[in-house]
Amino acid sequence: MDLNKMISKVGSAIVSVTVFLFAIFLIINFSMGYYFVCLILPIGFIMMTAGLNNECEGDRKVAANIGLIFAAVYSTFIMLVYFTQLTTVKNEQLNEQAANLIEFGRFGLIFNFDLLGYGVMALSTFFTGLSMKPKNKTDKWLRALMMIHGVFYFSCTFMPITGMFVNASSGGDGIGGRLALVAWCVYFLPIGILSFLHFHSDT
Question: Is the pTM of this model over 0.90?
Answer without folding.
Answer: yes
